[in-house]
Specification:
This protein is an alpha/beta fold. It has helices at about 15-25, 40-60, 70-80, 100-105, 130-135, 160-165, 185-190, 230, 240-280, 305-315, 335, 340-345, 360-375, and strands spanning about 5, 65-70, 95, 115-120, 140-145, 170-175, 195-200, 210-215, 280-285, 295-300, 315, 320, 320-325, 330, 350.
Length: about 375
């Protein structure tokens, strides 16, 4: 039996060898990073080295990196009423794009009545005119717009959004979890006030994330209280091994980014051409800039749940447009926000590539799709 093909990298990635080695070394340490003795200082050194690596990678200062348990916790920490910047008053409401991750759509610590959605275009890109209109409707707002969509791969106009938000006296949070390691990212250059990241999307371990706060942002209230860790922004003993693995993964991903991005763009084009040659497929957001590794598609009569199972039986791991935590395949809220009919949203399948994806993997996926197309689609 041939080895399985993994094409669900946007869900999670294999652990990079560099991250594994860093974690194994960290597991040998016995000190608490808050302790002042030699053992504690050695653990603290690993934490601070990783903090500096992530800060450098995204254009921030190390003191403004807050490690969390995951990207979801980082988003919850960022979405906080009362945040203020050097030239803005406390934010009182939250505006989120309609295609955000569920952890952002939940609104963090904002009450439901203070949360509003920003429309997106048919291509899945934030409607900047609608953003402008919503910003004039009330008091200063925190706006949350992801850097790259986890389903379609569409890159969002973060820099333009930041300018609009700041002119209106608001702040911008960017969920950059899918963008890190796949496309160049500098939060200072694009004007993000807060940005969130997750290790397991770039070859680091699961269970570690980070919030990066721009210089001059104040009013961030911790979700977890009780200790002075993470500049008193997140209580609890740091996950030293996870943080070390995160830092190693960031370093490896950034070093390989230009070569990986070029290679995945070529593989993505081969995959999309093959998908279209086999069936009358729609590839979402293919008319805008996207991550180089992401393909979300459907075809007439395709049911995502059946297709995901079919690919799996053929030895290829893919996902639906949106898979919830229970493991059930659900209609994509992203495609619904883009204006697609529910019947279309229920048929979306996502294939996402990574640094070890090879041409043979693409060929295997297309072979599986050819078999599925013959049996599943309307003719």
């Amino acid at each position: 039996m041939p080895p399985r093909v993994y094409l669900d990298w946007n869900a999670t990635t294999p652990l990079r060898p560099e991250a594994r080695a860093a974690m194994v070394a960290a597991f040998e340490l016995i000190g608490n990073p808050s302790s002042v003795h030699a053992e504690g200082r050695e653990a603290r050194r690993l934490v601070e080295e990783a903090r500096a690596v992530l800060a450098t990678a995204v254009g921030a200062l190390p003191r403004n990196v807050v490690f969390t348990s995951a990207g979801t916790e980082a988003n919850a920490l960022a979405l906080s009423p009362g945040l203020r910047g050097p030239a803005s008053g406390p934010v009182e409401r939250l505006l989120v794009s309609a295609v955000e991750h569920a952890s952002v759509l939940a609104g963090g610590r904002f009450q439901g009545a203070a949360i509003d959605l920003i429309h997106v275009t048919r291509s899945g890109v934030v409607d900047l005119e609608h953003l402008k209109a919503r910003l004039t409707d009330g008091p200063p707002a925190l706006v949350s717009i992801m850097a790259a969509n986890n389903e379609t791969g569409a890159l969002q106009p973060v820099a333009e959004a930041a300018r609009i938000v700041h002119e209106a006296g608001g702040l911008l949070h960017v969920d950059a979890i899918q963008a890190l390691g796949k496309t160049p990212l500098d939060i200072k250059a694009v004007g993000a006030d807060l940005a969130t990241f997750s290790a397991h999307k770039i070859g680091g371990p699961k269970g570690i994330g980070a919030l990066v706060v721009a210089e001059g942002i104040a009013g961030l209230e911790p979700v977890l209280r009780g200790g002075g860790q993470e500049q008193s922004r997140r209580a609890g003993t740091e996950n030293v091994a996870g943080i070390a693995g995160f830092g190693a993964a960031v370093k490896a991903a950034l070093q390989a980014l230009p070569e990986d991005a070029e290679r995945m763009t070529t593989l993505r084009a081969c995959l999309e051409n093959g998908i279209r040659a086999i069936a009358d497929a729609t590839i979402f957001s293919d008319d805008v800039k996207r991550l180089p590794n992401t393909v979300l598609f459907t075809a007439p009569g395709l049911k995502a749940e059946t297709a995901v199972i079919g690919f799996d039986l053929e030895g290829v791991a893919v996902s639906s447009g949106s898979a919830c935590s229970s493991g059930k395949v659900q209609p994509s809220h992203v495609l619904s926000a883009m204006g697609y009919d529910p019947s279309v949203a229920q048929g979306a399948v996502r294939l996402s590539l990574g640094w070890s994806t090879a041409p043979e993997d693409i060929n295997r996926a297309l072979e599986a799709w050819r078999k599925l197309g013959n049996s599943l689609l309307k003719h």
